[in-house]
Structure to design on (223 residues):
Protein backbone atom coordinates (compact mmCIF):
# COMPACT_ATOMS: atom_id res chain seq x y z
CA UNK A 1 0.00 0.00 0.00
CA UNK A 2 1.90 3.05 -1.26
CA UNK A 3 -0.41 5.74 0.15
CA UNK A 4 0.34 9.09 -1.50
CA UNK A 5 3.07 9.10 -4.13
CA UNK A 6 4.63 12.27 -5.48
CA UNK A 7 6.97 12.66 -8.42
CA UNK A 8 9.57 13.93 -8.84
CA UNK A 9 11.30 14.08 -5.44
CA UNK A 10 13.75 16.79 -6.50
CA UNK A 11 13.72 19.30 -9.34
CA UNK A 12 15.75 22.32 -10.38
CA UNK A 13 14.15 24.73 -12.81
CA UNK A 14 15.31 27.88 -14.50
CA UNK A 15 13.18 30.98 -14.13
CA UNK A 16 10.42 30.92 -16.72
CA UNK A 17 10.41 27.16 -17.24
CA UNK A 18 7.28 25.14 -16.67
CA UNK A 19 6.73 21.83 -14.98
CA UNK A 20 4.05 19.58 -13.55
CA UNK A 21 4.21 17.89 -10.18
CA UNK A 22 2.39 14.60 -10.10
CA UNK A 23 0.49 13.10 -7.19
CA UNK A 24 -1.39 9.83 -6.93
CA UNK A 25 -3.13 8.13 -4.02
CA UNK A 26 -4.30 4.54 -3.75
CA UNK A 27 -6.59 4.88 -0.74
CA UNK A 28 -9.76 5.71 -2.70
CA UNK A 29 -9.85 9.12 -1.06
CA UNK A 30 -12.25 11.76 -2.29
CA UNK A 31 -10.22 14.85 -1.42
CA UNK A 32 -6.74 15.87 -2.43
CA UNK A 33 -4.54 18.87 -1.63
CA UNK A 34 -1.37 20.67 -2.61
CA UNK A 35 0.63 22.51 0.05
CA UNK A 36 3.91 24.34 0.00
CA UNK A 37 6.23 24.48 2.98
CA UNK A 38 8.73 27.27 3.46
CA UNK A 39 11.07 27.82 6.42
CA UNK A 40 9.26 29.57 9.23
CA UNK A 41 5.96 29.60 7.35
CA UNK A 42 4.49 26.22 8.10
CA UNK A 43 2.29 24.63 5.44
CA UNK A 44 0.20 26.83 3.18
CA UNK A 45 -2.53 25.47 0.98
CA UNK A 46 -2.16 26.14 -2.73
CA UNK A 47 -5.17 24.35 -4.23
CA UNK A 48 -7.44 21.55 -3.23
CA UNK A 49 -9.98 19.21 -4.74
CA UNK A 50 -12.77 18.32 -2.35
CA UNK A 51 -14.07 15.66 -4.72
CA UNK A 52 -13.40 14.37 -8.21
CA UNK A 53 -14.37 17.02 -10.72
CA UNK A 54 -13.91 20.02 -8.42
CA UNK A 55 -10.93 22.22 -7.62
CA UNK A 56 -10.66 25.32 -5.45
CA UNK A 57 -8.05 27.90 -4.59
CA UNK A 58 -6.31 27.83 -1.27
CA UNK A 59 -4.29 30.48 0.51
CA UNK A 60 -1.50 30.92 -2.09
CA UNK A 61 -2.79 29.95 -5.58
CA UNK A 62 -1.05 32.60 -7.70
CA UNK A 63 1.36 31.14 -10.23
CA UNK A 64 -0.11 27.64 -10.05
CA UNK A 65 -2.75 25.56 -11.79
CA UNK A 66 -4.13 22.15 -10.89
CA UNK A 67 -5.89 19.28 -12.56
CA UNK A 68 -7.87 16.55 -10.86
CA UNK A 69 -7.26 13.96 -13.57
CA UNK A 70 -9.35 11.27 -11.91
CA UNK A 71 -10.10 10.16 -8.38
CA UNK A 72 -6.52 8.95 -7.86
CA UNK A 73 -4.48 11.74 -9.42
CA UNK A 74 -4.08 15.45 -8.73
CA UNK A 75 -1.37 17.41 -10.52
CA UNK A 76 0.11 20.83 -9.85
CA UNK A 77 1.49 22.90 -12.72
CA UNK A 78 3.86 25.84 -12.63
CA UNK A 79 3.46 27.62 -15.97
CA UNK A 80 6.37 30.04 -15.60
CA UNK A 81 8.50 29.27 -12.58
CA UNK A 82 9.81 32.09 -10.41
CA UNK A 83 12.46 32.01 -7.65
CA UNK A 84 9.69 32.75 -5.12
CA UNK A 85 8.29 29.31 -5.93
CA UNK A 86 11.36 27.63 -4.53
CA UNK A 87 9.86 25.46 -1.82
CA UNK A 88 8.99 21.97 -0.71
CA UNK A 89 5.65 20.86 -2.15
CA UNK A 90 3.46 18.30 -0.45
CA UNK A 91 0.47 16.50 -1.83
CA UNK A 92 -2.07 15.11 0.61
CA UNK A 93 -5.35 13.23 0.49
CA UNK A 94 -8.21 12.53 2.85
CA UNK A 95 -11.28 10.36 2.74
CA UNK A 96 -13.55 13.38 2.96
CA UNK A 97 -12.98 17.10 2.77
CA UNK A 98 -13.70 17.68 6.44
CA UNK A 99 -13.48 15.84 9.75
CA UNK A 100 -10.92 13.34 8.60
CA UNK A 101 -7.17 12.98 8.82
CA UNK A 102 -4.90 13.83 5.92
CA UNK A 103 -2.25 11.55 4.49
CA UNK A 104 0.83 13.18 3.02
CA UNK A 105 3.28 12.30 0.31
CA UNK A 106 7.03 12.54 0.83
CA UNK A 107 7.34 15.91 -0.83
CA UNK A 108 8.99 17.47 -3.89
CA UNK A 109 11.91 19.78 -3.24
CA UNK A 110 11.82 22.42 -6.01
CA UNK A 111 14.52 24.99 -6.61
CA UNK A 112 14.02 27.76 -9.16
CA UNK A 113 17.21 29.53 -10.19
CA UNK B 1 -3.17 32.89 7.31
CA UNK B 2 -2.32 30.44 10.07
CA UNK B 3 -5.23 29.55 12.31
CA UNK B 4 -3.16 27.56 14.79
CA UNK B 5 0.03 28.78 16.41
CA UNK B 6 2.31 26.36 18.25
CA UNK B 7 4.35 27.22 21.29
CA UNK B 8 7.25 26.91 21.89
CA UNK B 9 8.88 27.20 18.47
CA UNK B 10 11.64 24.85 19.64
CA UNK B 11 12.02 22.47 22.55
CA UNK B 12 15.09 20.52 23.64
CA UNK B 13 14.85 17.75 26.25
CA UNK B 14 16.60 14.59 27.39
CA UNK B 15 15.40 11.08 26.69
CA UNK B 16 12.90 9.95 29.28
CA UNK B 17 11.55 13.43 29.95
CA UNK B 18 8.08 14.57 28.98
CA UNK B 19 7.55 17.06 26.16
CA UNK B 20 4.63 19.46 26.09
CA UNK B 21 3.66 21.57 23.10
CA UNK B 22 0.80 24.01 22.91
CA UNK B 23 -1.41 25.24 20.12
CA UNK B 24 -3.64 28.31 20.18
CA UNK B 25 -6.22 29.18 17.55
CA UNK B 26 -8.50 32.07 16.81
CA UNK B 27 -11.92 30.89 15.65
CA UNK B 28 -14.30 28.06 16.48
CA UNK B 29 -13.30 24.63 15.27
CA UNK B 30 -14.86 21.26 14.45
CA UNK B 31 -11.73 19.39 15.38
CA UNK B 32 -8.03 19.88 15.93
CA UNK B 33 -5.36 17.53 14.68
CA UNK B 34 -1.70 16.99 15.51
CA UNK B 35 0.89 15.88 12.95
CA UNK B 36 4.55 14.93 13.14
CA UNK B 37 7.17 15.63 10.48
CA UNK B 38 10.54 13.99 10.54
CA UNK B 39 13.29 15.93 8.79
CA UNK B 40 12.87 15.84 5.04
CA UNK B 41 9.71 13.73 5.17
CA UNK B 42 5.99 14.21 4.80
CA UNK B 43 3.65 14.85 7.69
CA UNK B 44 2.19 11.94 9.61
CA UNK B 45 -1.12 12.19 11.40
CA UNK B 46 -0.93 11.57 15.16
CA UNK B 47 -4.31 12.29 16.68
CA UNK B 48 -7.61 14.06 16.02
CA UNK B 49 -9.65 15.57 18.85
CA UNK B 50 -13.18 16.81 18.22
CA UNK B 51 -14.57 20.03 19.64
CA UNK B 52 -16.78 18.13 22.09
CA UNK B 53 -13.86 16.15 23.48
CA UNK B 54 -11.54 17.40 26.21
CA UNK B 55 -8.81 14.78 26.26
CA UNK B 56 -7.58 11.97 24.08
CA UNK B 57 -4.80 9.41 24.41
CA UNK B 58 -2.83 7.38 21.91
CA UNK B 59 0.08 5.38 23.26
CA UNK B 60 2.52 7.88 24.79
CA UNK B 61 0.58 10.82 23.41
CA UNK B 62 -1.97 12.80 25.36
CA UNK B 63 -3.88 15.65 23.74
CA UNK B 64 -6.12 18.09 25.54
CA UNK B 65 -8.50 20.64 24.08
CA UNK B 66 -9.91 23.69 25.84
CA UNK B 67 -12.40 25.34 23.51
CA UNK B 68 -13.09 28.16 25.98
CA UNK B 69 -9.43 29.17 25.78
CA UNK B 70 -9.10 28.14 22.15
CA UNK B 71 -6.05 26.07 22.92
CA UNK B 72 -4.74 22.53 22.77
CA UNK B 73 -1.71 20.77 24.16
CA UNK B 74 0.22 17.72 23.05
CA UNK B 75 2.09 15.80 25.71
CA UNK B 76 4.62 13.14 24.78
CA UNK B 77 5.56 11.06 27.80
CA UNK B 78 8.91 9.30 28.30
CA UNK B 79 10.39 10.86 25.16
CA UNK B 80 12.78 8.92 22.96
CA UNK B 81 15.41 10.09 20.51
CA UNK B 82 13.12 8.84 17.75
CA UNK B 83 10.54 11.46 18.80
CA UNK B 84 12.85 14.17 17.43
CA UNK B 85 10.72 15.89 14.79
CA UNK B 86 8.58 18.91 14.11
CA UNK B 87 5.04 18.82 15.45
CA UNK B 88 2.17 20.73 13.86
CA UNK B 89 -1.34 21.42 14.95
CA UNK B 90 -4.03 21.80 12.32
CA UNK B 91 -7.52 23.15 12.78
CA UNK B 92 -10.65 22.09 10.94
CA UNK B 93 -13.25 24.83 11.14
CA UNK B 94 -15.95 22.71 9.54
CA UNK B 95 -16.35 24.72 6.36
CA UNK B 96 -12.82 24.98 5.01
CA UNK B 97 -9.69 22.93 4.66
CA UNK B 98 -7.22 22.15 7.43
CA UNK B 99 -5.10 25.12 8.46
CA UNK B 100 -1.66 24.35 9.84
CA UNK B 101 0.48 26.20 12.33
CA UNK B 102 4.19 26.83 11.94
CA UNK B 103 5.18 23.94 14.16
CA UNK B 104 7.30 23.13 17.18
CA UNK B 105 10.73 21.60 16.62
CA UNK B 106 11.40 18.96 19.26
CA UNK B 107 14.92 17.68 19.88
CA UNK B 108 15.28 14.69 22.19
CA UNK B 109 18.87 14.01 23.17
CA UNK B 110 20.05 10.56 24.25
Amino acid sequence: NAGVTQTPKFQVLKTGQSMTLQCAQDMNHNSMYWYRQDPGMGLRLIYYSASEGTTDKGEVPNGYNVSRLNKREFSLRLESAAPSQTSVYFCASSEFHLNTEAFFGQGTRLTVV
Amino acid sequence: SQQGEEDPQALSIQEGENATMNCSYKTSINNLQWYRQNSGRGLVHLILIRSNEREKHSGRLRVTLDTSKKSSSLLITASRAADTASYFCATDRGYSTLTFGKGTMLLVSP
